[in-house]
């Protein structure tokens, strides 16, 4: 069994999911309790644009990484412990 | 979204005098904090490059550092947007009959309370601090005879003028209440 660098990629995907859910809560509050105004609508749109832009850029950046790089190889460790 | 001109449980003849929000400088401070928090990892990156230049030449280290940085930026973006939401959703509405206090304390804690103007006992305005004095913002404290004893308008523009207006509205409301008896 091996642990590869991909674990950090999944960690980042988990962070994106949390970020998305938290952002939805924020937008819900602004839509439900905020006044109908240009400021409110603009802030929501700016946030969505910045978030979407950042996420696309970050995923593009991470595409260049070799996620198959092995960090820990348990099979090698186990073989060594039996003196093989 | 709520229409600015709509009122919950509107009474006959009741009109909105104005809505109050925190002073623009409070939002400016959030923007400055945002810039500082976003720049901090760049400073850290430069520090790492200067102190241990070979650390980031290793592709594995670089990948882990990049992921950590991206997660940090996501967290800061969420944090700043939440701060904006909390600050922006604090609204105080003054009508001809009452004061409506709408406060967002955190993302899952919203308090809405009302005070009839004729129940106002004391109004105090306060400006404290260098920026508050220069830019003209502060708090207005309203002591009442209601269930919630004190309302606070936090970090609003021109607190002395607002306090005076509330006192005038309070006198008018009390006179009207006496006339109605």
Summarize the structure.
The complex is a heterodimer of chains A (84) and B (181). Chain A is mainly α and 84 residues long. Chain A has three helices and two strands.
Low-confidence runs of chain B (pLDDT<50, min 5 residues)?
A: none
Low-confidence stretches of chain A: none
Structural class computed from helices and strand pairing of chain B: alpha+beta
Instruction: Please name the two chains that share the biggest interface, counting residues whose Cβ lies under 8 Å from a Cβ on the partner chain.
Output: A-B, 36 and 29 residues
Strand content of chain B: 25-35%
CATH architecture of the largest domain in chain B: Roll
Helix share, percent of chain A: over 70%
Extended strand count of chain A: 2
Query: What strand order characterises the main sheet of chain A?
Result: 1-2
Short key terms for the protein model shown above:
heterodimer; A: mainly alpha; two-stranded antiparallel ribbon; 3 helices; 73% helix; B: 181 residues; alpha+beta; PH-domain like; three-stranded antiparallel sheet; 7 strands
List the helices and strands and how they pair.
The complex is a heterodimer of chains A (84) and B (181).
Chain A (H helix, E strand, L loop, with lengths): L1 E3 L1 H28 L4 H25 L7 E4 H8 L3
Antiparallel strand pairs in A: 1-2
Helix pairs in contact in A: 1-2
Chain B lengths: L15 E5 L3 H28 L7 H30 L2 E5 L2 E7 L5 E7 L3 E7 L3 H6 L1 E8 L5 E8 L1 H22 L1
Antiparallel strand pairs in B: 1-2, 2-3, 3-4, 5-6, 6-7
Helix pairs in contact in B: 1-2
């Amino acid at each position: 069994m091996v642990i590869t660098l991909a674990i950090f990629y999944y960690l980042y995907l988990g962070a994106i999911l949390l970020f998305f859910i938290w952002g939805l809560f924020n937008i819900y509050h602004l839509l439900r309790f905020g006044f109908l105004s240009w400021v409110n609508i603009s802030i929501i749109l700016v946030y969505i644009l910045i978030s979407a832009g950042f996420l696309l850029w970050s995923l593009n950046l991470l595409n260049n990484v070799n996620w198959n790089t092995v960090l820990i190889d348990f099979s090698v460790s186990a073989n060594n412990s039996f003196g093989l | 979204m709520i229409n600015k001109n709509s009122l919950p449980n509107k009474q006959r003849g009741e009109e909105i005098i104005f809505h109050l929000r925190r002073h623009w400088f409070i939002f400016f401070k959030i923007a400055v904090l945002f810039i500082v928090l976003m720049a901090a990892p760049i400073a850290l990156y430069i520090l790492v490059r200067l102190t241990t230049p070979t650390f980031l030449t290793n592709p594995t280290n670089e990948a882990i550092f990049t992921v950590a940085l991206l997660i940090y930026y996501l967290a800061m973006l969420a944090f700043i947007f939440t701060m904006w939401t909390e600050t922006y959703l604090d609204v105080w509405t003054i009508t001809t009959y009452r004061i409506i206090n709408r406060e967002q304390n955190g993302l899952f804690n919203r308090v809405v309370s009302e005070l009839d103007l004729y129940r106002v006992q004391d109004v105090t305005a306060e400006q404290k601090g260098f920026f508050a004095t220069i830019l003209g913002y502060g708090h207005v404290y309203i002591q009442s005879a209601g269930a919630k004893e004190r309302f606070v308008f936090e970090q609003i523009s021109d607190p002395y003028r607002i306090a005076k207006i509330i006192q005038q509205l309070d006198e008018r409301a009390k006179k009207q209440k006496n006339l109605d008896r």
